[in-house]
Amino acid sequence: xxxxxxxxxxxxxxxxxxxxxxxxxxxxxxxxxxxxxxxxxxxxxxxxxxxxxxxxxxxxxxxxxxxxxxxxxxxxxxxxxxxxxxxxxxxxxxxxxxxxxxxxxxxxxxxxxxxxxxxxxxxxxxxxxxxxxxxxxxxxxxxxxxxxxxxxxxxxxxxxxxxxxxxxxxxxxxxxxxxxxxxxxxxxxxxxxxxxxxxxxxxxxxxxxxxxxxxxxxxxxxxxxxxxxxxxxxxxxxxxxxxxxxxxxxxxxxxxxxxxxxxxxxxxxxxxxxxxxxxxxxxxxxxxxxxxxxxxxxxxxxxxxxxxxxxxxxxxxxxxxxxxxxxxxxxxxxxxxxxxxxxxxxxxxxxxxxxxxxxxxxxxxxxxxxxxxxxxxxxxxxxxxxxxxxxxxxxxxxxxxxxxxxxxxxxxxxxxxxxxxxxxxxxxxxxxxxxxxxxxxxxxxxxxxxxxxxxxxxxxxxxxxxxxxxxxxxxxxxxxxxxxxxxxxxxxxxxxxxxxxxxxxxxxxxxxxxxxxxxxxxxxxxxxxxxxxxxxxxxxxxxxxxxxxxxxxxxxxxxxxxxxxxxxxxxxxxxxxxxxxxxxxxxxxxxxxxxxxxxxxxxxxxxxxxxxxxxxxxxxxxxxxxxxxxxxxxxxxxxxxxxxxxxxxxxxxxxxxxxxxxxxxxxxxxxxxxxxxxxxxxxxxxxxxxxxxxxxxxxxxxxxxxxxxxxxxxxxxxxxxxxxxxxxxxxxxxxxxxxxxxxxxxxxxxxxxxxxxxxxxxxxxxxxxxxxxxxxxxxxxxxxxxxxx
Amino acid sequence: xxxxxxxxxxxxxxxxxxxxxxxxxxxxxxxxxxxxxxxxxxxxxxxxxxxxxxxxxxxxxxxxxxxxxxxxxxxxxxxxxxxxxxxxxxxxxxxxxxxxxxxxxxxxxxxxxxxxxxxxxxxxxxxxxxxxxxxxxxxxxxxxxxxxxxxxxxxxxxxx
Lengths: 789, 160
Fold this sequence. Notes:
Largest sheet of chain A: 7 strands, mixed
Number of domains of chain A: 3
Structural class of chain A: alpha+beta
CATH class of the largest domain in chain A: Alpha Beta
Helix content of chain B: 25-40%
CATH architecture of the largest domain in chain B: Roll
Radius of gyration of chain A: 27 Å
CATH superfamily of the largest domain in chain B: Beta-grasp domain
Largest interface: A-B, 62 and 63 residues
Number of helices of chain B: 5
Distance between the termini of chain B: 55 Å
Number of strands of chain B: 5
Distance between the termini of chain A: 55 Å
CATH superfamily of the largest domain in chain A: Aldehyde oxidase/xanthine dehydrogenase, molybdopterin binding domain
Strand order of the largest sheet of chain A: 3-5-1-12-9-10-11
Number of strands of chain A: 28
Oligomer: heterodimer
CATH class of the largest domain in chain B: Alpha Beta
Shape of chain B: globular
CATH topology of the largest domain in chain B: Ubiquitin-like (UB roll)
Strand content of chain A: 15-25%
Strand order of the largest sheet of chain B: 2-1-5-3-4
């Protein structure tokens, strides 16, 4: 049993109180003294040549303080891609500049080419409407296959729309081709991983403040990753020295990937603040969010699975086109490659894997990592094609998976896609899943559905992900331009309470509650006496932010290491206080004791001694009790799971209703089951949303048709079921101190194929030879598939 | 600019507003009650739900001037008199019915309105009532559970 409030306890979240009483402090809630407002002027065409921008009418309008255009930023840098991908021929990827404001050309609807700073947002908006832009509309290219013909270029200077043509692992290509040629059975599936809009409920917002006295800047912004934002603005975009720039991400209303990245609006409000001498605030409206937040997914894939007649896998071969949109967002080149291709062996001992990914520029918003980031795309391809293969071979889809699972005695397991899985037990997950979903009772339930004219289907599948991102050495070899360690400072205050400064940023994950559970248990003190400080680069040593299910596995590990240093130093102080050797000091439950004696001293007394070092061995031990650790993981972590979905399909309308959904995940050790379960719920909501409801839709001219909640179907409460979530089958991660794997993305990774597999199963049971429907499985798509089959 | 007067969370307030000023902007910018959030421009998301004369209203669908003379309740006025969380707020915390917290004020205000008109809603009724409130974090599971619990009901869910 977990200790009260310690590791493994369902501790209620302390951050809830401020959110539940309206006391949260989101960026849009902050009004800086004397602030002015920024409004951006955005392209209404997907591809256009900027001939002239006439700001003269707007200049003199009431309240207008300054107007910026792309011309003002030609001498500063661009917003870079954080990951260099080399093509199969060794050529580096194409990296066109991504400026603060568009200059020369606009490349997607929503691309900002001017900004107005005014006393009020209404005045800024009025003036923005008075800006006359002569933008010559050019043909747009939206479809990836069309873009690869290079007839219309998104970036003239790179002379191609192909960003890269990547092979993984190129040396395995010939063997994979050969294996597929000679295989007794090959199943082929062409599928689309639909483009999604992350839709954090809080729209992006930024406040830039220039302090003339210090010649320093502060940016308050909606970020998952304030240190990276500071680094990018400093080193690449505006050249503000890091010591002169503070980035603060206060309460942030969800991110799901879209707030990892640095956006041009952040640089603009900083530059504008210096120019007008006042803080400058910008808050996106929802349509701006749809048009300019980095979108997710958008892959078109052909996957082949070669296998024996008994279902033993021989090879997976994948060809994917991945949309990167009009500009490279910070993680956009890593997402379809090293977060996707490396997972293409799935949970399986398949000996041959080859992945080809062509990344394509189009006149659409940038596409980047969205919850799961590459791993949902990999899982969807693998788990859909396995179901199709099982059906073709007349085999049970679960048995086929079990036949090919990596077995518990095979770890560490070198996958054919280049990763080394450290732990797992996929059969145990599937056993638990079949029990929870009551697979044995399915036939009866199907009969009952059929009796009322409905079709019932069951989908079961596995997933694996690589998260706890990431070992810096490894990702450096793979092209990352940053390290992916994290950092924490544990500060024991003189009176024995703690402030812990962490590089991870919490925007719904509950770090403020969970991190104290861990350190409280390590130190034997009340977690309530520990506070977490996050989201402020002036207070925190460094950090790489929160994404890729990394906060606990990487930053939490740094925090554990720093706490271990605290304990080591405190032991020395305690040894002095107890007149013993440090080697003889034991520490448990908040008490330092001397082996074989009844002498003891409490943690609080030791802390006080560190700050009031009277009778203190000042020659040997520094005063104070504060330690910092940077932690760089030895490997990715490998959460895995088995998911089941049971649906009813109305053959009259094609409407899909989810009857039940169960998720059995291996997250390793679990620190707070309540929060972990909540993370899975949220991921499932997004994954089911992708499968049934959501899709960002551009027309051929590059107009985003789904640019509001009237048009983009967000899952509502009545679209989703209660979920059954289990994490009793965890196998601890072998290489981090807490044995944790990460739970943030799992639900969104594992669930889309589960839903689609269930719907296909339902249609097949109704005698319809439907083998695939592209997501989202709207009633019209399902009905059409049934009626065309 | 016309002056509007109303009672907000039991306190008489007034302010000069433009005709185009929305109630949500009056609450957030003039009264600095920033717990009422703006998550969209089309009255879909429900992050701005408040109570006007006891009814749940999206504060972005109403001009401040239209609320002249009204009794307005916001999330800031929901806690008990001693500052402790009210039954609905407490249920949201107990059942982990919130993550990033951005949709939460609207959810709590909608839940209060629902339970006022239907003290023992079924799961389906809760889900249907929340049509106008979007949450991206929770998959709704724990929100529905929290509202059921706040109504004195409980839902048995296996394997939790």
